[in-house]
């Protein structure tokens, strides 16, 4: 009759989550965050009443996730592992009640699975080199209730500059945007959601100063530039820019030598 089970940080013998987990058919909440798991049993398909499932396990090796999540139709929250093996192919298109989806991978899941997830409010997408950007963009256009969106590239394709493929201005409810993608320069301000309040840029290696664009996003309240988001040497915040900014985080920008903040910025 168990409803809630938190197995965070638990180490399992041989990395195997016991198949008996499938007998807990009344589970609503299952958390495996940072658990020592490399094998998930197919019996998890019996957990059809789950509302919350966190599979963000701690594992140096690739984990195989059986294609059983498609049967958990009540799910509201799903967090997938960061590292899944090449054999993992997930069908998530029927999970129409999802509101939070973290770790959606274009390598292991079809971008068209997003089409019916119209209730999504928070989405994190891991982009692979095999990603069809046109298909992904058209699928994302259906997610009009998104409030938070993060894009991450897998390390092997960080060298590719694909950010121009995305136009995000149709996300009228989007408040928070994260881009961990390579781009030589930041997109034009008109490509950003109209009411964006927080932006986090990391690993972008932008060569052009992003401030002239960012300071024109009138609703921004916080900006984070971290982990070599900008590899130029000079940054300028001009008069009248960032009218609502409350917080600015600039860190791990090793090439930055000069930062000019004009009076009235």
UniProtKB/TrEMBL annotation:
Q: SUPFAM superfamilies of this UniProt entry?
A: L domain-like (SSF52058)
Q: Which Pfam families match?
A: LRR_14
**InterPro entries under this entry?**
LRR_dom_sf (IPR032675), LRR_R13L4/SHOC2-like (IPR055414)
Q: Does the keyword Transmembrane helix apply?
A: no
Alphabetized UniProt keyword annotations: Repeat
Question: Does the record's keyword annotation contain Transport?
Answer: no
Domain of life per record: Eukaryota
UniProt domain Disease resistance R13L4/SHOC-2-like LRR: residue ranges: 1-251
Write the protein's name: Disease resistance protein Rpp8-like protein
- Species lineage: Eukaryota, Viridiplantae, Streptophyta, Embryophyta, Tracheophyta
């Amino acid at each position: 009759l168990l409803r809630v089970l938190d197995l965070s940080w638990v180490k399992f013998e041989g990395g195997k989550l016991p198949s008996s987990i499938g007998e807990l058919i009344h589970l609503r909440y299952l958390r495996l965050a940072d658990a020592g798991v490399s094998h998930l049993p197919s019996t998890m398909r019996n957990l059809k009443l789950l509302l919350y499932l966190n599979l963000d396990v701690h594992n140096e090796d690739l984990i195989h996730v059986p294609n059983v999540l498609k049967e958990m139709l009540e799910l509201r929250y799903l967090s997938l592992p960061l590292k899944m093996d090449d054999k993992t192919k997930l069908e998530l298109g029927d999970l129409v009640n999802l509101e939070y989806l973290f770790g959606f991978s274009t390598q292991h899941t079809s971008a068209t699975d997003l089409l019916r997830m119209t209730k999504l409010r928070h989405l994190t997408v891991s982009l692979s080199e095999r990603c069809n950007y046109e298909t992904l963009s058209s699928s994302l256009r259906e997610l009009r209730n998104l409030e938070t969106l993060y894009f991450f590239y897998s390390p092997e394709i960080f060298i590719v500059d694909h950010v121009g493929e995305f136009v995000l201005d149709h996300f009228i409810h989007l408040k928070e945007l994260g881009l961990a993608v390579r781009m030589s320069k930041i997109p034009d301000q008109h490509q950003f959601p109209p009411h964006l309040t927080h932006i986090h840029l990391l690993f972008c290696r932008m060569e052009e100063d992003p401030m002239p664009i960012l300071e024109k996003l009138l609703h921004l309240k916080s900006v984070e530039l971290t982990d070599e988001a900008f590899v130029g040497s000079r940054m300028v915040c001009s008069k009248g820019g960032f009218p609502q900014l409350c917080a600015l985080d600039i860190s791990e920008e090793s090439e930055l030598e000069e930062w000019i903040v004009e009076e009235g910025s």
